Amino acid sequence: xxxxxxxxxxxxxxxxxxxxxxxxxxxxxxxxxxxxxxxxxxxxxxxxxxxxxxxxxxxxxxxxxxxxxxxxxxxxxxxxxxxxxxxxxxxxxxxxxxxxxxxxxxxxxxxxxxxxxxxxxxxxxxxxxxxxxxxxxxxxxxxxx
Length: 145
Prior knowledge:
- It is a single chain.
- By secondary structure, the protein is α/β, with parallel strands linked by helices.
- It has a single domain, classed as Rossmann fold (3-Layer(aba) Sandwich).
- It is built from five helices and five strands.
- It has helices at residues 13-25, 38-45, 74-83, 101-109, 122-139; strands spanning 5-9, 31-35, 62-65, 92-96, 114-117.
- It has a five-stranded parallel beta sheet, with helices on both faces.
- Strand 4, helix 4 and strand 5 form a beta-alpha-beta unit.
- Helix 2 runs parallel beside helix 3 (74-83).
- It is globular, with a radius of gyration of 14 Å.
- The mean pLDDT is 86.
């Protein structure tokens, strides 16, 4: 089992490319899997649909979850993640452009481990993602469930 997988749930191609670049720059994950909407995230995490052949025990060490997604928003995806035994301990970082205090509160209420606003500036965005990766992939100790 590879415990150095990051699942990036992001529908913006530019943010996806920047996030991947920042993570790879510092070799923070062996694998970065990408899904582009909330429904696909659920399929990936719970090995349904096109991900039915994926090993459910090969969990991501970290999920970077955008809030505003097509098909199912990030809050609903997070609720589903936290409601299932197989996924409830996976660290989830909300990574979004939202400035709404209500989004922060809702995210923490349903079990987000962290809420990060995406900086608009390229250099700042890269640094934020790098710091996220270092903390969650190298420093944090995840539950072995």
